[in-house]
Amino acid sequence: KTGRADFALEALGGNVISIGCTETYYEDAPYASFMSIPLYRQPNPPNVALQPDITPGKCWAFKGSKGYMMIKLAHAVIIDGFSMEHLSKKLSLSNDISSAPNKFSMRGFSHPEDSSSHFYGEYKFSDTGPSLQRFTVTHPSKVAYEIVELDIESNHGNLEYTCLYRIRVHGKVPKLS
After folding, report:
1. Residues 6 or more apart from 36 whose CB is under 8 A from it?
2. N or C: which end of the chain has fewer CB within 10 A?
3. Rounded to an integer, what is the distance from CA 107 to the centroid of its chain?
């Protein structure tokens, strides 16, 4: 859809390595069952946001409007953009996408425990825009990073939870000298 390589894509080796203190939302999650007997709620794991399936409910839902995700990319890259995708209002049964992320920021790290990072910028996902939105890095770096941090600061008004359907990371693999 973007025409660009997605270095966060799970199928290529991208992986969620931390969600910090962010709590997965369980309330509306489907039940896992055995012989048609519901046993426990089974929410989508955070790594669903690194998969290409954008169907209703196929998102990582977390409590509240603020959330955090640290992603190990498939390869260290010089990052030049991000894409975020949410379910279209047309596909929403209630025509409501208030659970979509709103303001978010991105950082790059060489290692998950690093105290220093590179701040790529703050961005805003529009709930009136297309379901797939592209963001160019505001503060570029010539350093290739293998770890990115997504910090979602707000959603579009849902007080209970936020749904992250898909995050993509774009860039270029550095040339070996």
Report:
1. none
2. C
3. 13
